[in-house]
Amino acid sequence: MKIKVLLVDDHKIVSDSLVPLLNSQPDIEVVGQASNGRKAVELTQELNPDIVIMDVVMEELNGIEATRHIIAQCPGIKVLILSMQADRRYVTGSLNAGASGYLTKSCSFEELVTAIRKVQENKKYLSPEISGIVIEESLDKSPAAEPSISTVLTMREREVLQLLAEGKSVKQIAEQLFISIKTVHTHRKQIMEKLDIHSIANLTKFAIREGLTSLK
Fold it and tell me: Rounded to whole angstroms, how far apart are CA atoms 83 and 102?
């Protein structure tokens, strides 16, 4: 039986170029493509892939938050991160969200295929440069470490924060998340109070610094 893969990348040329390469493998089949994290969550539920190959920095819902949604809603499905980003915040954020592996886009196609097969076997896979970051992170952990954004804000609050930082209006956020305008206002108020940040400009800077969005 082939390994069913869902590709998630906001650069269509990247995703499109991987489809024929992966389909050329005797044990891998690409069953779908998505251009943002929100669509990835929807397609994961619809297509039930074995592995989601996920980019990190995407509009609407970033790869880290999408990974959290997928792991929570479909615990049997594995997520393999494939990203340009090798920054510690993205790596640790992805792994803490439940990703089974992390590769940078500088990896070879052969390494990607190896990672897919390892992850399918319920193993973890980290490219060499990522392994170093994970080791450093584990050594640097201390009881006095500052809480991460994932512990300070709820999943919904992080979603709202990303959309605010990307310039979406309260009405647009309400429509996109299928919640009321009043609820969006409540989330925004709670976000500002929890972070002690009281302007959209500074919230945007915070969201970029924390890797929720890059505004690319």
Answer: 8
Query: Does residue 5 contact residue 116 with C-beta atoms inside 8 Å?
Result: yes
Query: What is the 8-class DSSP label of residue 53?
Result: E
* pTM of the predicted protein model: 0.83
Return the minimum-mean-pLDDT range out of 6-20, 26-40, 126-140. Answer: 126-140
Q: How many beta carbons lie within 10 A of that of residue 190, not counting itself?
A: 15
Measuring CA to CA, how many Å separate 114 from each of 36, 59, 216?
Answer: 25, 29, 30
Least confidently predicted of 64-68, 129-133, 135-139:
135-139
Specify the residue for token string 């295929």: 113
Domains of the chain: 3-140 (3.40.50.2300), 149-209 (1.10.10.10)
pLDDT exceeds 60 at position 167: yes
| Average pLDDT score over residue span 56-76 | 94
* Closest among 148, 167, 176 to 36, alpha carbons compared: 176
Neighbours of 39 (CB within 10 A): 19
Phi/psi region, residue 60 (left: phi>0; alpha: psi -120 to 50; beta: rest), is: left
